[in-house]
Amino acid sequence: MKAVEIRNLSEKELSEKLVDLKAELFHLRFQHAINQLENPKRIKAVKKDIARISTIIKENAMKNAQ
After folding, report:
1. Residues of the chain with pLDDT under 50
2. Which domains are delineated in the chain?
3. Rounded to an integer, what distance in angstroms lies between the CA atom of residue 8 and that of residue 64?
């Protein structure tokens, strides 16, 4: 997911997406631990998406604080 797409989401959608991605990351790590993960690169992509969403949530919080 690109940052431009993420910026267009509402705060509620961002929070929901963040929870979903964290759950997906948990499942991917579990699958990786038991050697059933087909695409290990997906872990890195999900972590980057989590970071992007977290950054945008913090940016929005800073804008609202000012």
Report:
1. none
2. 3-65 (1.10.287.310)
3. 16
